Amino acid sequence: MFHGVNISECARITGYPNIAWTTDFFSNWIAQNSNLVDLNVSKIENQTTWANNNAMMSALGSFGGILGGAVTGNYSSGLLGLASVPLQMAQNKDQHDFAIKNVMLEKEKQQMLPNSSNMGTNAGLLGFGYMNKDAFTRYSIKNEYAQRLDTYFDMYGYQTNKLKIPNLSNRPNWNYVKTLGANIIQATGHNVPQEDLQEYKNLFNDGVTIWHNPLTFLDYSQNNR
């Protein structure tokens, strides 16, 4: 039981109006994963730093082995260890670059994915009374656009898309007529050259303004209603 509602004059709409929207896929992804991307890059940098430090420690150990070899005469192990250090450093750099490129590739892949379009739905019942002023809202274009449209239609009239005889004199100052495939028939007793007749047809098909008053010729500010 509804109290204070005029049920007999109430409008019922099954479902709210659907509103479509577009989701920027990459912006959402980067907002959710930017911290993870930064964390992965920091992890890669730290791992490379530790690997390079270990290589330097190995180099120091190999150098110590060479110094010990001066006493024992066994230089081979120290030299081999020292020679492997540049290779280890180069391998660390390659692994670092590969890991960074892998992170950047994932970012580029997400950036190339298209945005997603969504349509909201609601199966609920929308009810309102006719006297409820919040149920309806009047919308209109801006005043400057309305003036542009009004000026255009004052000059060129309105499209009718009908098969008919054009009205050439129903306006007080001018009539604009534009046809599609105009058919002009000669009056009985007149012999108009076909070339001239075709020029008249082309004139109407291209659009022509017929002025009725020489004093207002080309003056579109005049009242033409």
Which properties best describe this structure?
225 residues, two-stranded antiparallel ribbon, two-stranded antiparallel sheet, 50% helix, elongated, 6 strands
Q: Given the structure, what is the number of helices? A: 4
Following the backbone from N to C, one meets helices and strands in this order, namely EEHHEEHEHE
Distance between the termini: 55 Å
The overall pLDDT average reads 75
Radius of gyration: 42 Å
What does the largest sheet look like? 2 strands, antiparallel
- For the biggest β-sheet, the strand order reads 1-4
Structural class: mainly alpha
The overall number of domains is 2
* Apparent shape: elongated
Low-confidence blocks of residues? none
Number of strands: 6
Helical residue percent? Answer: 40-55%
Strand content: 5-15%
Description:
- The protein is mainly α.
- The protein has two domains: 20-119; 143-216, no CATH class.
- The protein has helices spanning 25-72, 76-112, 143-156, 194-206, and strands at 10-14, 20-23, 116-119, 125-129, 174-177, 208-211.
Write a concise synopsis of the structure shown.
With 225 residues, the chain is mostly helical. It folds into 2 domains: 20-119; 143-216, no CATH class. The protein has 4 helices and 6 strands, in the order ββααββαβαβ.
Give the SSE layout.
Blueprint: E1 10-14, E2 20-23, H1 25-72, H2 76-112, E3 116-119, E4 125-129, H3 143-156, E5 174-177, H4 194-206, E6 208-211
Antiparallel strand pairs: 1-4, 2-3, 5-6
